[in-house]
Amino acid sequence: MRHYLRECSLLLAFVILLVIVRVLAPDFFAADNIRNLLVKNTPILVAAIGMTLVIVARHIDISIGSQFSVCGIVAGLLSGIGLPMPLVAAGSILTGATMGAFNGGLISMLGLPSIVVTLATLVIWRESLRWWREGEFVRGLPSSFQWFGTGQSTGQWLVVVIAFVVLIAFAWATRYLAACRSVYATGSDAEAARLAGIRPKRVVFGVFVVMGALTGLAALLNGVRFVDVDPNAGTGLELQVIAAVVVGGAAVSGGRGTLAGTLIGVALLGTIEPALVFLGTKSQWDKALQGLIILLAVASDALYRKGK
Q: What domains can you pick out in the chain, each with its CATH number?
């Protein structure tokens, strides 16, 4: 239980929030609203899974929002030329993995700081997309694209199921696969990991590729919710994803973090804004509360490390 103290504390805070909303604004728990919240936050959850691995490896990727936008446009264009949805999904995931590999190569092979590299690629991908699309949406998509061609009700649950299958798969992998456990070893002490036979450079490259691929999947899950694909869909996503992971207990110093914590972090931060709306509070307080929660999370992590 001590190992999961951070996650348990966060879960308690989330439950308290839900109880307060239940008492003051019971309409928040209407079935349609809960379903909409789930669908809205599933792309963030999928992207946050990849970001968890990156942060556990003691790195960060702030270009994720730009990657998300590019992958969404690619998915829309591939669908627009008549490709079936499995190939559209593969194209979006491959695009994200390629951008992740570019970041990972510069960071692992050249030893460049991840925050500098991903800040540069954030601007490169965003400005390239702006030059390419000039803000134009991808329109005229076939019926097979929106909600995977299944209809809104079925499509919404399909999006949620896909996200949770990915979450369960990676939660299992981080616990039982040596390749994923090496991520924790690398984030804790790269030199010690190297002496133990792990190749830290390969691990770092791998987590950026995986994160890029998951960003591509997240972009697809977000894109199928709409009739058109917005080239600015990923704006601000990096803050949402990194905040959810850090609040969920992943240590910015690397080596610690769980996907259960990430799930709770996504749920907590994704609930605050709509809860404030139902409570009749100005939505501008949402960002302030998110910032306060992030600050408290980082401060508690620092106190935890100091007390060890």
A: 5-17+30-307 (1.10.3470)
